[in-house]
Amino acid sequence: MSMFNKVIASLGIGSATVDTKVKNAYIHQGEMLEGVVEVKGGSTEQRIESIHLKLMTLYGHEGGDRLSPAVVEAHRLNEPFTISKGEKKIIPFSFKVPLDTPITMVHPETQKNVPPVWIDTGIDIKNAVDPKDRDYVSVDPSTVHENIINAIKVIGFKFKQMESQNTPVWVKTNRPFVQQYEFTPTFGKYSRKLDELEVYILQGDHETTIYFEIDKHSKGSMAVLKEKFNLDEHRGSVTLDNQEILVNRRRVSDTFEEIIDDVF
Description:
The chain is an alpha+beta fold and 264 residues long. It has two domains: 9-140, Immunoglobulin-like, CATH 2.60.40.640; 143-263, no CATH class. 18% of the residues lie in helices and 47% in strands. It is built from five helices and 17 strands. Strands 4, 5, 6, 10 and 11 form a five-stranded antiparallel sheet that branches. A hairpin with a 6-residue loop joins strand 10 (117-125) and strand 11. Helix 2 (143-154) packs across helix 5 (249-263). The protein is elongated and about 70 Å long. The chain starts with a helix and ends with a helix.
């Protein structure tokens, strides 16, 4: 009977199960994500080679509907161990959520996070089908991130939308994805001069690089031609000290005003 149970477990029937429980499903970029992984033995003793956690997300591709998965952070929990029949083990975990983890927003129709961010939990079991678990989390912006967004709003822009997409060639990051923020001018001196401001925020431990694309408002017979060949767009980047962003948001607003004014 024991041999039969081992064969069945190797097929994934009656095998060990895994359940990840996070301490707080609402986290900020750069915070510690804490929780436990509960492993429950199946119908026979099994050797657990490793338990691994992957913080995952999905990103889109410009001009299409295809979505690609990406690993934001990977974390291995333990050394190999054996779990007995019906035994329950609780293994705590803690790891830092990267500063470039995508921020999530609730879709008004589906009430699901966009983009999705979740923890994939997997157990490597020798000669068996590996059990898996998926747990979704919500990610809020860091204070640095939030101050930059608010600084842009202050000078007359309204947040339009946010999306995770494949990284444009002119944005320097090792990630295959980057989060894009779109703003439209609604008041002030830019309301009739710009169509859109796109921003990519790449925060580091000590400084943050902000990539931007300014879409000027074109008029006259050349407007269609300029739009077709992106002749009305201006791209660039600026790097700011994180501490200055935290204590002097006005300086961030002034910097963007200077950048945009130079385009005209």
